[in-house]
Amino acid sequence: MKPCPHSGAAWCRPSGTRPVVADAEKIFASALASTLEARLTSRGALTRGARTWARAMVGSITLAVDEWITAPDAGPQAMADELTMFVWGGVVAIVTA
Q1: How far apart are CA 38 and CA 33, in angstroms?
Q2: Are 66 and 21 in contact (CB under 8 A)?
């Protein structure tokens, strides 16, 4: 585990070691999967990967934010913009596939 420069040292632990965070990630991924499935269904697209895509989005964002908290390489707005671009690009690619 990396040393954490923040007083809330729990932030610097992987989410799997923080039950509350892990539960929140599962809840968010489940809600995102439901939303993706509904939107894809309304467009007549395949929904088979919705759960996997939702988990991948939540997991990659969690990891990116955890790493950014311990070693910020951009300002908060830049980080938010980059993550938004990542998620939006993924959703557009899924919907238009």
Answers
A1: 9
A2: no
Question: In terms of Cα–Cα distance, which of 95, 97, 86 is closest to 35?
Answer: 95
Identity of the residue numbered 23: D
pLDDT digits (tens, 9 = 90+) for 46-91: 899 999 999 999 999 999 998 999 999 999 999 999 999 999 998 8
Question: Which is nearest to 66 in space by CA: 17, 29, 11, 6?
Answer: 11
Give the span between the Cα atoms of 63 and 78, in whole angstroms: 16
| DSSP assignment letter at 9 | G
pTM (two decimals): 0.73
- H helices present in 1-97, as ranges: 19-42, 50-70, 76-96
Q: Show Cβ contacts of residue 16 under 8 Å, excluding neighbours closer than 6 positions.
A: 22
